[in-house]
Each structure stands twice: as structure tokens, then as C-alpha cells.
Amino acid sequence: MLEVGRLGRAHGVRGEIYVDLLTDRTERLAVGARLKAGDIWLTVQAARPAGGRWLVRFEEIPDRTVAEARSGMRLSAEALPESDHEGLYVHELVGASVVGIDGTEYGRCVSVLANPAHDILELDGGALVPVVFIESVEGLGDSRRIVINPPEGLFDL
Q: Does pTM surpass 0.90?
């Protein structure tokens, strides 16, 4: 399960609630989508953008009282199927060692920075690597590694 958002404050008396998405995959809030809040599965009945958040009505939240009780809960969901141009999740990258296709070790990925052109891997040594240079992600757990094919000069400072 991936954390994809958080329930905010209630809105109105009919059970609508604000949702802060932690992903750019807005299909997480498509009608019929299912999200888990604690031990309860919620089914999206309707959703619309509201500023930088979303205003969502869930089938399992019939009124303001229930919405207020759910406020602040984390929303989780199963991983979405990979598409041709996507499929790398931040949780798969952070903590992984980064090596070149020639075996050169560059460090560990400590975060993934959102960038309009391409997301960027931030390495523990401060280097930044655009995700377009990722060739593959291999292994599991602590042995996970990201294989990159960086252009000449990327790591020269």
C-alpha cells in the first residue's frame, strides 16, 4: 500500500471532505476508486478540484459528523499499473544505491525532487541526477540499486 493523500476538514453537512493528494495521479480520485483510511475502505462517489486540494464525497461518509471523525487520516491505495512512460515510485528510489552502467558508485538516493521537466534524484553527496538517465531499478529492500547512464560531465563540479 502506498500513502497517496490525507483527509482534511469536513465541508458542508452532506459528508464532503477536503483531500490533500500526495501524488500527481489524479485518477486516485476517479469515481469508483477505492482508498483506505485506517482500517476502512472508502469509495469515491464524486471529486472536484478545490484550490490546491480536492473536495471529495465518499460513499462511506454520509454526513459531516462522520467526515469530521475521519479528518486527518492518511489515505492509502494499491500501486497503479505501470505505463510505458512511468512506473517508478519514490518509495522504490529513496534509499537505493546509485551506480553507473560501468559499475561506478555514485552514492544513495536520499530524495526525489519534483521538477517540471523531469523528476530529479538527490544523492547523499549532493549530486542531482534527472530520472531520464535511469536505465533500470534492480533488487529488493536494502539491496535495491538504481542503474544510471549519465552523460559525460554530470558529476563534475
A: no
